[in-house]
Amino acid sequence: MAMTGVLALAGCGGSGSSAAELSVGASYMPQPVSADMAAGFLTITNKGGTKDELTSVTSGSAGEITMHETNGGAMEEVNSFEVPAHGQLVFKSGGNHLMFEKLKRQPKQGDTITLKLKFAESGPLTVEMPVKSATYNPSTGH
Prior knowledge:
With 142 residues, the protein is mainly beta. It has one helix spanning 2-10, and strands at 22-30, 37-46, 52-58, 62-71, 74-78, 81-83, 87-90, 97-103, 112-119, 125-132. Strands 1, 2, 3, 4, 5, 6, 7, 8, 9 and 10 form a ten-stranded mixed sheet that branches.
Protein backbone atom coordinates (compact mmCIF):
# COMPACT_ATOMS: atom_id res chain seq x y z
CA MET A 1 0.00 0.00 0.00
CA ALA A 2 2.81 2.43 0.81
CA MET A 3 4.20 1.92 -2.71
CA THR A 4 0.94 3.13 -4.28
CA GLY A 5 1.10 6.31 -2.20
CA VAL A 6 4.67 6.99 -3.34
CA LEU A 7 3.73 6.55 -6.99
CA ALA A 8 0.70 8.81 -6.64
CA LEU A 9 2.82 11.46 -4.91
CA ALA A 10 5.52 11.31 -7.58
CA GLY A 11 2.90 11.75 -10.28
CA CYS A 12 1.26 14.90 -8.90
CA GLY A 13 3.40 17.29 -10.93
CA GLY A 14 6.04 18.36 -8.45
CA SER A 15 3.82 20.36 -6.10
CA GLY A 16 5.16 18.36 -3.14
CA SER A 17 8.71 18.76 -1.87
CA SER A 18 9.35 15.03 -2.33
CA ALA A 19 9.28 15.15 -6.14
CA ALA A 20 12.47 15.65 -8.16
CA GLU A 21 13.14 19.33 -8.93
CA LEU A 22 15.59 19.40 -11.81
CA SER A 23 17.58 22.27 -13.31
CA VAL A 24 20.56 22.44 -15.64
CA GLY A 25 23.59 24.70 -15.48
CA ALA A 26 27.21 25.04 -16.60
CA SER A 27 26.50 23.54 -20.03
CA TYR A 28 29.08 23.87 -22.78
CA MET A 29 30.58 22.15 -25.80
CA PRO A 30 34.26 22.67 -26.61
CA GLN A 31 34.58 23.55 -30.30
CA PRO A 32 35.11 20.11 -31.85
CA VAL A 33 38.19 19.31 -33.90
CA SER A 34 36.22 16.62 -35.74
CA ALA A 35 33.57 17.54 -38.30
CA ASP A 36 31.20 14.77 -37.25
CA MET A 37 31.71 14.26 -33.49
CA ALA A 38 31.81 16.47 -30.38
CA ALA A 39 31.66 16.22 -26.59
CA GLY A 40 29.26 18.09 -24.31
CA PHE A 41 29.25 18.85 -20.60
CA LEU A 42 26.66 20.12 -18.11
CA THR A 43 25.45 19.80 -14.54
CA ILE A 44 21.95 18.63 -13.60
CA THR A 45 20.89 19.70 -10.10
CA ASN A 46 18.04 18.02 -8.23
CA LYS A 47 16.70 20.08 -5.31
CA GLY A 48 13.84 17.64 -4.72
CA GLY A 49 13.60 14.74 -2.31
CA THR A 50 13.22 12.06 -5.00
CA LYS A 51 15.93 10.78 -7.33
CA ASP A 52 15.33 10.75 -11.07
CA GLU A 53 17.14 9.30 -14.03
CA LEU A 54 18.45 10.92 -17.21
CA THR A 55 17.36 8.45 -19.90
CA SER A 56 18.20 10.20 -23.19
CA VAL A 57 19.51 13.36 -24.81
CA THR A 58 18.51 14.53 -28.28
CA SER A 59 19.37 17.49 -30.50
CA GLY A 60 18.52 18.58 -34.02
CA SER A 61 22.25 19.29 -34.44
CA ALA A 62 23.32 15.64 -34.14
CA GLY A 63 22.11 12.35 -35.53
CA GLU A 64 22.72 10.70 -32.17
CA ILE A 65 23.80 11.70 -28.67
CA THR A 66 25.18 9.01 -26.40
CA MET A 67 25.99 9.21 -22.69
CA HIS A 68 29.34 7.99 -21.39
CA GLU A 69 31.02 7.49 -18.05
CA THR A 70 34.76 7.23 -17.51
CA ASN A 71 36.02 4.52 -15.17
CA GLY A 72 39.75 4.18 -14.61
CA GLY A 73 40.49 6.05 -17.82
CA ALA A 74 38.17 3.85 -19.94
CA MET A 75 35.12 5.39 -21.60
CA GLU A 76 31.93 3.32 -21.42
CA GLU A 77 28.53 4.08 -22.99
CA VAL A 78 25.59 3.90 -20.57
CA ASN A 79 21.82 4.00 -21.14
CA SER A 80 20.98 6.25 -18.18
CA PHE A 81 22.42 8.23 -15.28
CA GLU A 82 20.88 8.66 -11.84
CA VAL A 83 20.22 12.21 -10.67
CA PRO A 84 20.31 11.81 -6.87
CA ALA A 85 17.79 13.49 -4.56
CA HIS A 86 19.28 16.71 -3.14
CA GLY A 87 22.31 16.17 -5.39
CA GLN A 88 23.90 16.66 -8.79
CA LEU A 89 24.76 14.71 -11.90
CA VAL A 90 27.94 16.27 -13.31
CA PHE A 91 29.23 15.84 -16.84
CA LYS A 92 32.80 17.18 -17.05
CA SER A 93 36.00 16.72 -19.02
CA GLY A 94 37.67 13.47 -17.95
CA GLY A 95 34.45 12.16 -16.40
CA ASN A 96 30.83 11.62 -17.42
CA HIS A 97 30.14 13.27 -20.78
CA LEU A 98 27.80 13.46 -23.75
CA MET A 99 29.02 12.42 -27.21
CA PHE A 100 27.38 14.17 -30.15
CA GLU A 101 27.69 11.87 -33.17
CA LYS A 102 26.77 12.34 -36.84
CA LEU A 103 26.82 16.14 -36.51
CA LYS A 104 24.75 17.89 -39.17
CA ARG A 105 27.44 20.62 -39.32
CA GLN A 106 30.58 21.33 -37.32
CA PRO A 107 29.76 23.67 -34.40
CA LYS A 108 31.94 26.76 -34.11
CA GLN A 109 32.82 28.88 -31.08
CA GLY A 110 29.91 31.27 -30.41
CA ASP A 111 27.24 28.87 -31.71
CA THR A 112 24.53 27.47 -29.44
CA ILE A 113 23.33 23.87 -29.57
CA THR A 114 19.78 23.13 -28.36
CA LEU A 115 19.36 19.86 -26.45
CA LYS A 116 16.37 18.04 -25.03
CA LEU A 117 17.04 16.01 -21.87
CA LYS A 118 14.55 13.26 -21.08
CA PHE A 119 14.06 11.76 -17.62
CA ALA A 120 12.37 8.66 -16.21
CA GLU A 121 9.98 10.66 -13.99
CA SER A 122 10.24 14.40 -14.68
CA GLY A 123 9.23 16.19 -17.83
CA PRO A 124 11.87 16.95 -20.48
CA LEU A 125 14.22 19.93 -20.11
CA THR A 126 15.43 22.04 -23.03
CA VAL A 127 19.00 23.29 -22.71
CA GLU A 128 20.86 25.90 -24.75
CA MET A 129 24.50 24.70 -24.82
CA PRO A 130 27.04 27.33 -25.89
CA VAL A 131 30.02 26.27 -28.02
CA LYS A 132 33.25 27.45 -26.37
CA SER A 133 36.86 27.43 -27.53
CA ALA A 134 38.45 24.00 -28.01
CA THR A 135 40.65 24.65 -24.94
CA TYR A 136 37.88 26.02 -22.69
CA ASN A 137 38.15 24.68 -19.14
CA PRO A 138 35.55 26.03 -16.69
CA SER A 139 36.76 26.98 -13.25
CA THR A 140 34.86 25.29 -10.48
CA GLY A 141 35.35 28.12 -8.01
CA HIS A 142 36.91 25.78 -5.42
